[in-house]
Design a protein that fits this description.
The protein is of the alpha/beta class. A hairpin with a 4-residue loop joins strand 1 and strand 2. Strands 3-8-7-4-5-6 form a six-stranded mixed beta sheet, with helices on both faces. A two-stranded antiparallel sheet has the order 1-2. The N terminus is likely disordered. The chain contains 13 helices and eight strands. The structure holds adenosine-5'-tetraphosphate. The site of adenosine-5'-tetraphosphate has 19 residues, from helix 1.
């Protein structure tokens, strides 16, 4: 159930969603927005941190509140172009993954970002209110740009947060469901909304709130000091929602741990074991204290196998549905077309107003 805590501007619901960054809204309607890059099969970090909370939003949002979920393929090319042969299949795989996890394409407007030209147009407009120096200070930019030698960083990577702001503001989003890794981008987004409103003397854009789930930063299985990520070169670092039972067991068994002995919860000196306990608690919807007590006196291997069991149990229906959906690609394309048709109506209407405000019309 959704619970809004006023004053602290916090929103909670069944999976413990939390709305950060207070802000006013010029609209009375909640507009929920989120996006995911088609850069691989969603992993359990995406699932716990973003997809599961989205399903909760879908079930509990006020009727009449638009829910927009975008497969952000323009963002996926900010680290370089995507091979023609992969582009379409990546989008279909992400769409199948979201549907298999429970996204309902009637309740949610599930659409493909590049199909709505207004995203890039608004990003251009917002770029006039943004500086290169500020974008260069974004932690995600600093981190991802290190991967390019001799400063050969694609332009899109720098502009990523501006495009992300355009994604949300184009629909006059009031609530943005994203993991903790997106907080800096959300701050930039709210600054842009305020700057636009201030410069054009309007209250057209609501100031969106960031909404994060309880599991806002799921860690990598192989290096628990970093977040689980689709683009980590090691597939052992993450469990994908389509992984077979055997693969889930293999990845859990190979997850970083130690040789200290029985299970104890000590995130500082035993980060690998603590990470496994966190995952087990997340999948069983229990507290760390309760799961630590359960495994007291047990070996780490027992914890790994038990974790594999609960993850596999959750993923079993999802992986079946995922593979079945992927064998009907025309159906996936139809679902995306349907979402695109609904999204573009809102995008065009808002863009006409934005152009009016800016004196372009
Ligand atoms: N490890 C994570 N824990 C919790 N939430 C996460 N998210 C991503 N990783 C974790 C959340 O999932 C949503 C979609 O993310 P994305 O695919 O658009 O981009 P990302 O954050 O960059 O995710 P990845 O897996 O790390 O993708 P790549 O490797 O392609 O960059 C977001 O809400 C994100 O917060």
């Amino acid at each position: 159930m959704l619970r809004v805590v006023s004053g602290a501007a916090q929103t909670y619901c069944r999976v413990g969603l939390r709305a950060a960054s207070s802000g006013s809204s010029s609209s009375n309607t909640d507009v929920w927005f989120s996006g995911i890059q088609p850069t691989g099969v969603p992993h359990i970090g995406n699932y716990l941190g973003f997809i599961e909370p989205w399903i909760d939003i879908q079930e509990n949002a006020r009727s009449g509140s638009p829910l927009l979920l975008s497969i952000v393929d323009l963002h996926a090319m900010t680290v370089g172009p995507v091979q023609t042969s992969r582009a379409r299949s990546n989008i279909r795989e992400m769409c199948a993954g979201l549907l298999a996890c429970g996204v309902d394409h009637e309740e949610t407007i599930l659409f493909q970002q590049s199909d709505i030209a207004e995203h890039t147009q608004l990003a251009w407009f917002l770029g006039s209110l943004q500086t290169i120096t500020k974008l260069q200070r974004m932690p995600q930019y600093k981190d991802k740009s290190k991967k390019f030698k001799n400063g050969q960083v694609p332009l899109g990577l720098l502009n990523y947060p501006v495009l992300q702001a355009a994604d949300v503001l184009l629909y006059k989003g009031t609530h943005v469901a994203v993991g903790e890794d997106q907080t800096q981008h959300m701050n930039l987004l709210t600054d842009l909304a305020r700057n636009f409103n201030g410069f054009y003397e309007t209250d057209f854009f609501p100031i969106p709130k960031q909404v994060t789930g309880t599991h806002a930063r799921v860690k990598s299985l192989s290096s628990p000091d970093t977040k689980m990520s689709k683009s980590d070169p090691s597939s052992l670092s993450r469990i994908e929602i389509s992984d077979s039972r055997e693969m889930v067991f293999k990845k859990c068994r190979r997850a970083l741990s130690d040789v200290v002995g029985d299970v104890t919860y000590d995130p500082m000196s035993r980060p690998g074991v603590a990470n496994l306990l966190h995952l087990y608690a997340a999948f069983t919807k229990r507290t760390i204290q309760s799961v630590t007590e359960e495994f007291a006196g047990n070996s780490v291997l027992a914890l790994k196998d038990r974790l594999a069991e609960v993850v596999d149990e959750r993923l079993e229906p999802i992986r079946q549905s995922y593979h079945s959906l992927l064998s009907h690609t025309a159906r996936i394309d139809d679902i995306l077309d349907y979402g695109n048709e609904r999204a573009v109506v809102i995008a065009r209407r808002n863009m006409a107003n934005i152009k009016n405000i800016m004196g372009l019309k």
